[in-house]
């Protein structure tokens, strides 16, 4: 079998060598073989280059990875170094906030206690003020004030005697009232031509003081030594201010016929009319009542 095959090959070779196109085919085959070798050599060279490039890329990637890792570690260390003080500061702030919250709660409790204490003290002050005002009013119970008497009129005599004679003459009294004290107000002596200081007079008997005020109220005008004078009760400043708030209402009541009015201590306005008797503590309420029921009916 093998002998027959070799014989066929040799015969084929001989036939090829003997034919004219066989030589061209051989050259073509050689060229193809050479080209194949060249291609394979280039492929091998490319494989080597690719492998070298890949190795270089791997090395670069590894270098970049190491650099990135180093930079990341550096940033982490830097951030850690910067964050540590911040964390300590935050912890300190939390402690301070907690301390402030506790202090605020304590202060809130103290403020509540202070407000309660202030309310108690305010009530006490109001009570003491009312008592002081009442005591001052009682102390002035027998006093009056005389306005308009010229300065120095009492010089050379005892003031109580001069004032007692003044009241007797001005009011037409049968006898001079009994006075305990009489003196000028505590202001400095006014310049010549200025308003004289008021005379403050204390009666020995309360009924005589009431009689003087009644006589003064009945007279339209009081004059002494050519000067117009006024006689008022000597009231505490707070009471006088509260009574002064009724001034506008009293001016309205003066023009109402058949209406009587007067001030009750300390500062209450009593109005008597055909509608009955009313007592007011509030000037606004008194004015509204007067305008609504008394002024329009006259």
Automatic annotation (TrEMBL):
A GO BP annotation: retrotransposition
Coiled-coil region: 58-117
The organism's place on the tree of life at top rank: Eukaryota
Record's keyword terms, sorted: Coiled coil
Keyword Transferase: no
Assigned GO CC terms: ribonucleoprotein complex
Region (Disordered): 1-24
Protein's UniProt keywords contain Aminoacyl-tRNA synthetase: no
Gene3D superfamilies: L1 transposable element, RRM domain (3.30.70.1820)
Recorded GO MF terms: single-stranded RNA binding
PANTHER family: L1 TRANSPOSABLE ELEMENT-RELATED
Protein name: L1 transposable element RRM domain-containing protein
Organism per entry: Oryzias latipes
Organism lineage: Eukaryota, Metazoa, Chordata, Craniata, Vertebrata
């Amino acid at each position: 079998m093998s002998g027959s095959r070799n014989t066929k090959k040799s015969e084929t070779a001989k036939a090829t060598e003997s034919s004219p196109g066989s030589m061209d085919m051989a050259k073509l085959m050689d060229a193809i073989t050479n080209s194949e070798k060249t291609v394979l050599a280039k492929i091998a060279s490319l494989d080597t280059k690719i492998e070298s490039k890949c190795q270089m890329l791997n090395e670069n990637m590894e270098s970049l990875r190491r650099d990135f890792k180093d930079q990341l570690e550096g940033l982490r260390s830097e951030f850690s170094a910067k964050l540590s003080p911040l964390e300590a500061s935050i912890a300190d702030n939390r402690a301070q906030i907690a301390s402030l919250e506790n202090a605020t709660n304590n202060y809130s409790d103290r403020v509540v206690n202070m407000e309660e204490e202030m309310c108690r003290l305010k009530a006490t002050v109001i009570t003491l003020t009312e008592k002081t005002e009442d005591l001052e009013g009682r102390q002035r119970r027998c006093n009056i004030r005389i306005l308009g008497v010229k300065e120095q009129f009492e010089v050379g005599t005892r003031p109580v005697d001069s004032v007692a004679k003044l009241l007797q003459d001005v009011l037409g009294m049968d006898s001079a009232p009994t006075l305990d004290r009489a003196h000028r107000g505590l202001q400095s002596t006014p310049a010549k031509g200025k308003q004289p200081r008021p005379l403050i007079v204390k009666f020995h008997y309360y009924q005589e003081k009431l009689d003087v005020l009644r006589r003064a109220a009945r007279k339209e005008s009081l004059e002494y030594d050519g000067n117009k004078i006024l006689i008022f009760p000597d009231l505490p400043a707070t009471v006088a201010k509260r009574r002064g708030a009724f001034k506008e209402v009293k001016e309205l009541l003066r023009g109402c016929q058949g209406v009587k009015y007067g001030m009750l201590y300390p500062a209450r306005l009593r109005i008597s009319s055909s509608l009955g008797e009313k007592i007011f503590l509030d000037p606004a309420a008194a004015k509204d009542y007067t305008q609504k029921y008394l002024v329009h009916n006259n």
